[in-house]
Amino acid sequence: TYNADIAGWPELNHISTIGAFVLGLGGLVWIYTMWKSLRSGEKAPDNPWGGYTLEWLTSSPPKAHNFDVVLPQEFPSERPLYDWAKKGVELKPEDPSHIHLPNSSFWPFYSAATLFAFFVSVAALPVPNAWMWVFLALFVYGLIRWALEDEYSHPVEHHTLSGKSNAWMGMAWFIVSEVGLFAILIAGYLYLRLTGAAVPPEERPALWLALLNTFFLVSSSFTVHFAHHDLRRGRFSPFRFGLLFTIILGVLFFLVQSYEFYHFHHASSWQENLWTATFFTIVGLHGLHVVIGGFGLILAYLQVLRGKITQHHHGTLEAASMYWHLVDAVWLVIVTIFYVW
Q1: Distances from the Cα of 31 to the Cα of 5, 18, 108, 321, angstroms
Q2: What span is annotated as the signal peptide, if there is one (predicted)?
């Protein structure tokens, strides 16, 4: 990287090279020492140095929840272990139900990896292709296994400041983002339609099919609502029937819309008509949400069959039903602006 005749540089480079070899030898000594200590000798306790700061109270390596004991409310100094021992404070074991950490699971990583592989196959290969269906099937399998495994090894009581469950809060914020997504797309369509840029073709999707689908979707919103209420009242047979009937109505909606898309695609090309392009974009995106929401309801139903959803633990159903109501509300707007107008 430089000329060898520069004064002093070769000597400095030679010294640096020697130093690099010394560092390498030191690293080898460290690796040997670590290997030796792992294979022989007495295992060190959690606090081998008799430290008094808080980090020495946990195990080595630390557990995911850090401490197995209930910590006192008072910390007199930066050496709480010394202060508590001096005052005779007894550290009581922590109640496992107060530890709100789920069990370790392989399926979140598996699901993320297969979903990533699915998108790579969509982006890198001609669509459709065999690999995208393989990875999509593997992704669905991972979600099912994830939904059916136990989150906690012991009963856990969740307490929130809002009085709402974590599933409700998470889905509520997600719905806010979904409302923003559809609002932007619908606003763009209204601008194109009002300015005359997006003119509907002569042969539009049949209104009676849209009204039939509206009946299916609105009815399913009522059935999932009453099913959820039956679960809260402990009426499990009506609850299971109502949830299953909701899934059937969602499947009927999807089949009717698939039939509609197939025929309208042959009647009007989205590449030649802007109204058709916006129709397939917005209505197709809503259809994708129906598939996702329906799959969420199926996961909830599988959890019901396994006994995971109970009268007091029904987070999956709560989130899935909220999402389904969103799908229903968006559909009413779509029917108005694409089929009626």
Answers
A1: 39, 20, 33, 55
A2: none
